[in-house]
Design a protein that fits this description.
This protein is mainly alpha-helical. It has 2 domains: 44 residues, no CATH class; 62 residues, Arc Repressor Mutant, subunit A (Orthogonal Bundle). It is 56% helix and 4% strand. It has 7 helices and 2 strands, in the order βαβαααααα. The chain has a two-stranded antiparallel ribbon. Helix 4 crosses helix 7 and helix 5 packs across helix 7. The two termini are 52 Å apart.
Amino acid sequence: MMVLVGEHAAESSQPCRKGAIHGRITVSGKAYGEISMKRRCSPMGLQTFYPDSDSADEGADDKRAVLGEEDSNLRLLGGRISVQVALGVLNPRERDVIVRRYFGGLTQSTVVNIIGVGQMQVSRIERRALGKLKREMQY
């Protein structure tokens, strides 16, 4: 690791004020990368904390900020990916009807008006497409 100290910093025997060190030290790109990696990889205690209780631990708030909370959408991600993959087995018309009905929130009547076929035809397309999706998504 290579750290270069500016000439004026070497001459000064006075301690640096907070924030003043920025102008005195230049760190090479490689050294900066090493320092950054060490900061990211520093060990952290994994102590149990209870968000609803009053913790006497001073760092509890910091730990909560770092650990965060479970993203409720994370559970749905796997299902969404599976559905996207399964939609690939549908023909373009089936996919269009399913996407408009279930992802666009449109009624069959609205889909009928958009794609220009009868309501019974949209119903058949939807039923056939849902059957294909069900078979495709069974593990």
